[in-house]
Amino acid sequence: MAEKQDYSQTELFSDDSGGQYKPYVPKNSFFLRIRGYEKVMLLLMGFILVSIIAFSLGVEKGKRASWARSNYNTSASGGYTIQVATFKNKQLALREVQLLLKEGLTPMAFAKGGNIVLCVGKFSNQESAQPLLIQLQRTYAGCRIRRL
User: Fold this and answer.
1) Fewer CB atoms inside 10 Å of the end CB: C or N, the chain?
2) Residue 126: CB partners within 8 Å, gap ≥ 6?
3) Residues paired with residue 83 on neighbouring β-strands, in sequence order
4) Which run of H or E residues covers position 98?
5) What is the pTM of this model?
6) pLDDT tens digits, one per residue of 55-89
7) 40-53 pLDDT, tens per residue?
8) Domain 78-147, CATH among 3.40.50.20, 3.30.70.1070, 1.10.3720.10, 3.40.50.1980
């Protein structure tokens, strides 16, 4: 017949926690297996990756905005202008705009990259801009005709 066992089966239901609930923590978790400095490196790499993606999306958005603005300017304008100078300092560019206004010309200043480009006039073709170019070359040695 069946023999009576002297031990109780407590290994499945051990009561060593004192009746309090202990949450289950998996012992083979990914973050528990890696070391502390490796966690920092993984977080740093993730941050850099997210930063690069955000930067590239911002650059693409800026390119689209710049492209739309440049298309708007070229379609609304005559097509050609005379580039007089390029400045890094905004104050110098504004002073030069005031000088050109005193001479009775129509200056335009716009940002291109990190510079401010100063142009004069709007022309439908290059031949109509040629007389003013000759006149401006006396004062501004490097001026040239360019597309808007």
Assistant:
1) N
2) 80, 145
3) 119, 144
4) helix 90-102
5) 0.48
6) 988 888 777 766 555 545 444 446 899 999 999 99
7) 889 999 999 999 99
8) 3.30.70.1070
